[in-house]
Every structure is written in C-alpha cells, then in structure tokens.
C-alpha cells in the first residue's frame, strides 16, 4: 500500500476546498435562487446563513477528516464504529450520484462554449438548449467532461488536484471580476444592482418560510457539504493549521464568487429587459444565452462566461470523484490511475440516462438536492455534535491559539442552531420532493 498523499501547502488545501465549493452552485444556482426569492432579500439571508450555518458545518467536516486522515467511510468508522461508517457510505454514494449527472451539465457547458463562438444558439436559445440537453450527442460531451475530470484526479492529490485548483480558482476569480466590470458598462445595469443590493425587508418578513430554507440550502450546497468532499480534502492535511481561519477563508472566497455571479447576471438581465423572476433554473442556458445573442461582442462575452462556468464545474467535479477514489485508494492495493479510470467509467455509465433524457436528469438532481445532500449534513452534524463531541472540540483547538475558547461555543452552536436549521431544511426538501 503506497503512502497516503498530503497537500504540499496550506494554500493548496484552501484553493482545493474553494475549488470544490465554487462550482455550478455559485455561478448557476445562486443567481436564479436569488431571483426566485426577491433578489437582495435573499442575498441578506444567504450571507447570514453562510456565516452562522455554513461555516460551522464545514468545520464539522474538517475535524472528522483531519483527525482520522482517512477517506470519508473509514473516517466515520474510526471515530464512531460501523454504524457511523454509514454516514460515510452516504457521503461516498452522494458524491458518486451527484457527479454522474453533474458531468452531463459539464458537457452542456462545453457545447455552449463552442456555440458562443459559432453563434449556434443566437437564433433560438431555448430551441438550442432543447437540442443539446438530451440525446446521443449529449453523451459524447458528457464523456469528454468525464475524461478531463478523470485525468486530473488520476494524477494524484499533489500533482493533479492541487496543481489544477491552483490554476482554476484564480482563473475563475479573474475572469468573473473582468465580466462584472464589463457588465457595469451596460445600459440598465444600475437597475440590476439595485435589485441585487437593495433589500426590501418586507419581502423577507412576508416570505421567510421559503427564503430562509432556500438560503440555508444554498449555503450548504455551495460549500460542498453533505457529499464527503470536505472530509476527504481535510484528511490530506498534515499539520496543526488553524481550521477556523481556513474555514473562514473558504467561506468568504466561495461567497465572493457567488456575489460576483450576481454582479454579472443581474446587470445582463436588466440590460435586456428580462424579468429576473422569470429566469428560473434556465437563467444560464437559455436566458443569458438570449442576452449574449443580442449584445455587441456577444460571441466573445458568451465564450468567456461559459469558460468560467466550465472551469468552476471541473473544480467541483474533481472533488466529487476524489471522494470515491480516496476510499478505494485507501483500501485496495491498486494504483490510483487504474482505480480512477475504473470508477470514472462507472460514473459515466450511471450518467448516460441523464444525458439521454432531461426528465431523468431532473429526477437525479431532485434526489441529490432534496434528500441525499441535506440528509448527509444532518447526520454529520448529529454525529459530530453529540457523539464525537469533545474529540471534535479538541481537534478544532489544534492551531487555534488565543481563540481556543471558540471550540465549546462552536460545539453547542452546531448541536442547536445548525442542527435545527439543517433538519428543517431536510424536512422541507423532502416535502418538496414528495409533492413534485
């Protein structure tokens, strides 16, 4: 059995974790969730949820990974026995399930990149999305995306994931800042900023029953929680770095990219007199495509935007594949490249039905977002808060220095506030799934 890899630097770990978090959840999901929940009203609640729910929850996954230095299944088994290992099994399965159709979306993005340069979707964005989102051609681009993901993960933690994310994450930030600066010059951009940055608190008061759970769910989703990714990445830490400081850095950077996406999407929509409330989940692939088709230099701007989306999708996809690969690398005396190719092939095959049918894709997505992810977070918080307990505090205190008193406060916070918030989110998610 080969020696387990570790990150070569603290920056490498932070950027890898940010890369996992910064994906379609920020650039695709965050703007349309904001639009469906009152724009700035949602932003306010989301920022609170990210700080009070997302950050404490990511620390819970970090302590499990760093303490054990094991994959997600063995990490929970080491700390809580066979029953706890089931939490890890759920995380592993969730990563496997999520990547199978996430890769299909990655294939869509590749097609939109080429479609931007050729103008293929300019004549009818909605019809174009219908053509490329399902069918045998979609399988090809699903395969291309998986091949790239497999190649990065097969190269290892240090030479593959760490090197890749050190390039990807800064690229995402630079390109998004550039696009936000460009969007600032558009006629009508001011109305987009007002919608996104000027909260109407009466909207929160009147719609808190939908805004709060949506904001909590978005905070958990965008930070890659409940899928074993943060446990796995933290398991490659070698040292006593300040996990609180790292968690804050990751949460802030992740939130920064989501807000940047809003600075791009909403000025674009208002510049084209598109009601953001009507954009929905198709905001990127239909509504924004329509905006690019009508803007000067729309081909170049569209290509850059979908390039950012592709990089973000890849940075998240490699973490999902690594969750599964890590388990097999730790438990089987087979080389990482061979395991990665084998696992990646199975993931690809599971994603074929989603590539062939948009209805199947939607079903896969609903199962992941409404059941698997929130259930994984609930069980992790329950385990860390009430079973691992004091051990979790001791692990978190390593590297905290003068802020070591934060540990007990954090423990009771996740036992009460975080647990109730994610449990409520799970209940509402299940209700949504059952009524669909």
Keywords summarizing the entry:
436 residues, 0% strand, 82% helix, globular, mainly alpha
What does this structure look like?
There is one protein chain. This protein has 436 residues and is mainly α. It is built from 17 helices and no strands. The relative contact order is 0.20.
Q: Would you tell me the structural class of the helices and strands?
A: mainly alpha
The secondary-structure element order is HHHHHHHHHHHHHHHHH
Distance between the amino and carboxyl termini? 47 Å
Shape: globular
Strand elements, count: 0
Outline the biggest β-sheet: none
Helices and strands in order:
Blueprint: H1 10-21, H2 24-36, H3 40-68, H4 72-118, H5 125-132, H6 136-154, H7 157-184, H8 189-197, H9 201-222, H10 229-234, H11 243-271, H12 283-294, H13 298-331, H14 336-356, H15 358-388, H16 390-397, H17 406-435
Helix pairs in contact: 1-7, 1-11, 1-13, 2-9, 2-11, 3-4, 3-9, 3-11, 3-15, 3-16, 3-17, 4-6, 4-13, 4-14, 4-15, 5-12, 6-7, 6-13, 6-14, 7-11, 7-13, 8-11, 9-17, 11-12, 12-13, 13-14, 14-15, 15-17, 16-17
A few lines on this structure:
This protein is an all-alpha fold.
């Amino acid at each position: 059995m080969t020696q387990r890899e570790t990150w070569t630097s603290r920056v490498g770990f932070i950027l890898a974790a940010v890369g996992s978090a910064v994906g379609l959840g920020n650039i695709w999901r965050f703007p349309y969730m904001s639009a469906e929940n009152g724009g700035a009203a949602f932003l306010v609640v989301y920022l609170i949820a990210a700080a009070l729910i997302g950050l404490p929850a990511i620390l819970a996954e970090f302590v499990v990974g760093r303490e054990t230095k094991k994959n997600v299944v063995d990490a929970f088994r080491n700390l809580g026995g066979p029953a706890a290992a089931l939490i890890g099994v759920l995380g592993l399965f969730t990563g496997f399930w999520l990547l199978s159709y996430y890769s299909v979306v990655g294939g869509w993005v590749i097609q939109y990149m080429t479609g931007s340069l050729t103008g293929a979707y300019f004549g009818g964005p909605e019809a174009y999305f219908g053509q490329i989102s399902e069918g045998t051609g979609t399988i090809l681009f699903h395969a291309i995306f998986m091949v790239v993901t497999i190649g990065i993960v097969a190269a290892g933690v240090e030479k593959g994931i760490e090197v890749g994310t050190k390039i990807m994450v800064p690229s995402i930030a630079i390109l998004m800042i550039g696009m936000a600066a460009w969007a600032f010059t558009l006629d009508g951009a001011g109305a987009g900023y007002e919608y996104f940055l000027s909260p109407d608190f009466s909207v929160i008061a009147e719609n808190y029953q939908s805004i709060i759970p949506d904001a909590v769910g978005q905070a958990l989703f965008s930070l890659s929680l409940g899928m074993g990714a943060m446990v796995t990445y933290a398991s490659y830490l070698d040292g006593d770095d300040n996990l609180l400081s790292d968690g804050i850095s990751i949460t802030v950077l992740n939130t920064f990219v989501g807000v940047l996406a809003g600075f791009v999407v909403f000025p674009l929509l208002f510049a084209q007199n598109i009601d953001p409330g009507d954009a929905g989940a198709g905001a990127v692939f239909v509504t924004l495509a329509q905006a690019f088709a009508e803007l000067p230099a729309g081909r170049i701007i569209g290509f850059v935007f979908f390039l950012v989306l592709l990089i973000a999708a890849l940075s998240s996809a490699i973490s999902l594949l690594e969750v599964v690969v890590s388990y097999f690398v730790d438990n089987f005396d087979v080389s990482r490249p061979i395991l990665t190719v084998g696992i990646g092939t199975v993931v690809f095959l599971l994603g074929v039905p989603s590539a062939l049918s948009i209805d199947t894709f939607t079903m896969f997505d609903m199962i992941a977002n409404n059941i698997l992810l929130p259930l994984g977070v609930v069980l992790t918080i329950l385990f860390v808060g009430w079973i691992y307990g004091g051990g979790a505090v001791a692990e978190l205190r390593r590297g905290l220095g003068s802020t070591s008193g934060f540990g007990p406060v954090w423990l009771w916070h996740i036992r009460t506030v975080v647990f109730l918030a994610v449990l409520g989110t799970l209940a509402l998610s299940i209700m949504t799934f059952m009524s669909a």
